[in-house]
Amino acid sequence: MLVIDPGTLRLPLRSAGEQCSPLHALYSFCIIPKSNPVPQGIFCLGVMFVQLDLSCRRRRRWRWAVPLVLAALLLALPQLAALRPAALARVDRVVGRHYMTRLDALQQENFTLHQQLAQSADALAENAALRQLVGCGRGITGVTPARVVARGVGGFTLACPDAAPGNAVLDAGGRYAGVVTRTDGDTCTVEFSAAAGLCGSYAGLVTPGQWVLTGLPADCALTAGDIVTTAGGDWLGTLAAAPAPDADGLTAQVPLTDTADLWGTVYFVKK
After folding, report:
1. pLDDT 10s digits, 152-171
2. Which is deepest, 146, 156, 201, 232, by most CB within 10 Å?
């Protein structure tokens, strides 16, 4: 509380348009004239007392609410405990439903991506086999690429809807691997059955997987490196050595090299 004598009150002058800075809210003042100072002084003291009392009440007003809030919480604890399982169950249902929906979407997306990757891998393998077939130098035409979908002891199954029984099957190197024996919708069965092998003016039998030319005349004049083909002109391999006579002395046999790869993923079916 500031008591100011009006005779000594001096305020700083400000230029036109300039405002004085406001007094802080913590300060109050009374102007007491010298002509009648006692009544005015008593009035100022009363105002100061009221201001101090109200300010204290404002500062302490919130304190009485703390016990009430604590008591309300204590009284509400049983109800809150009863509501907790139901609330947790509801949250679990909502979150679980959202999680399962998201999981199903991710699984479907993952399945689609796996299918796309598998198709891409099949396309890449087919392109690599085609490049190898073109680069083998055997001038093979009129073939259809087919992917292996299953394997067995004596052959494999190809995904080739256009195949027919009796069609020769070549590997990526253009070498004879087997023959189509059965078709079933979009697939065909290839067996490693014996095929006639021609080498020069002599003929014998070759079974894919065994790769031995048998049934040659014992006195044949074949040498290592001679080419062996099927009756249709497909490559079977080359002689690994000169034919060796069998135990009966009437026939001879010889193993082959440069034969078909029977563990490939893509083959070519001749039309």
Report:
1. 989 999 998 889 999 999 99
2. 146
> End-to-end CA distance of the chain, in Å?
115
Which residues does 230 contact at the CB level (< 8 Å), separation at least 6?
A: 168, 176, 195, 196, 197, 198, 236
Contact 171, 261 (CB under 8 A): yes
What are the φ and ψ backbone dihedral angles of 225, each rounded to 5 degrees?
Answer: 95, -10
Domain range list for the chain: 76-135, 143-270
DSSP string, the chain: -EEE-TTT-------TTPPPPPPPTT--EEE--SSSHHHHHHHHHHHHHHHHHHHHHHHHGGGGHHHHHHHHHHHHHHHHHHHHHHHHHHHHHHHHHHHHHHHHHHHHHHHHHHHHHHHHHHHHHHHHHHHHHHHTSS---SEEEEEEEEE-SSEEEEE-TT--TT-EEE-TTSBEEEEEEEEETTEEEEE---EEEEETTEEEEE-TTT-EEEEEETT----TT-EEE-TTS-EEEEESSS-EE-TTSSEEEEEEES---TT-SEEEEE-
The closest of 169, 166, 232, 231 to 196, measured between CA atoms, is: 231
Asked if residues 2 and 28 have their Cβ atoms less than 8 Å apart, the reply is yes
Q: Are 226 and 196 in contact (CB under 8 A)?
A: no
* pLDDT tens sequence across 91-117: 667 776 777 787 788 888 887 777 766
